[in-house]
């Protein structure tokens, strides 16, 4: 089981799109991958939980966190092999860890926590909540956007992780990210 949570090390720069629901992470990940002619990793949690909802009308439980983590890492490792110097990850295990701690009071899982600490990303892009909230089967916190954004921002600060905050339209966000990512590629 532990092997399934190992992050492949292949010299690719890994960038995480980070933040609360409906903050533009997927849209920005796709656009950045296109801009930099590379790959992006979709959010496995969304696919997993949508299937669970559609098939059984059930929501996320603590027991889902390890299968979700395994699925996320499998996708990341697969796309990293195909990436062109940089990979954009629409979420990662830290994002899943934050959600687990929001939804499941006093959530602990030593195996997941170990891999959250162990995985490396060169940059986090914290997506602001200044885009319209879009409802779907899984999103449930339209009135807690500021609180959720603060939780995600605080997690990055607490862990001393490298990040930038993006705001505005997709074009504005791309313009904010492009020079920083270009510098990362040139290092």
TrEMBL record:
The superkingdom listed in its UniProt entry is Bacteria
Q: One Pfam family, short name please? A: AAA_28
Q: What is this protein called?
A: NadR/Ttd14 AAA domain-containing protein
Organism (species): Psychroflexus planctonicus
Query: SUPFAM superfamilies of this UniProt entry?
Result: P-loop containing nucleoside triphosphate hydrolases
From which residue to which does any coiled coil extend?
none
The NadR/Ttd14 AAA domain, residue ranges:
14-173
Under InterPro entries, the record lists: NAD_biosynth-regulator, NadR/Ttd14_AAA_dom, P-loop_NTPase
């Amino acid at each position: 089981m532990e092997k399934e949570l190992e992050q492949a090390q292949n010299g690719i720069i890994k960038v995480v799109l980070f933040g609360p629901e409906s903050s533009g992470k997927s849209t920005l990940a796709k656009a950045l991958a296109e801009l930099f002619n590379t790959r992006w990793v979709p959010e496995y949690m969304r696919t997993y939980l949508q299937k669970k909802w559609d098939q059984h009308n059930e929501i996320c439980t603590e027991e889902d966190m390890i299968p979700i983590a395994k699925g996320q890492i499998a996708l990341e490792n697969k796309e990293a092999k195909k990436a062109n110097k940089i990979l954009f990850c629409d979420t990662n295990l830290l994002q899943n860890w934050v959600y687990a701690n929001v939804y499941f009071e006093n959530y602990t899982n030593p195996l997941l926590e170990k891999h959250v600490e162990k995985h490396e990303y060169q940059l986090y892009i914290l997506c602001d909540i200044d885009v319209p909230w879009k409802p779907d089967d899984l999103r449930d916190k339209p009135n807690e956007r500021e609180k959720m954004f603060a939780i995600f921002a605080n997690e990055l600060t607490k862990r001393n992780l490298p990040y930038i905050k993006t705001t505005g339209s997709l074009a504005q966000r791309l313009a904010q990210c492009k020079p920083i990512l270009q510098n990362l590629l040139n290092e």
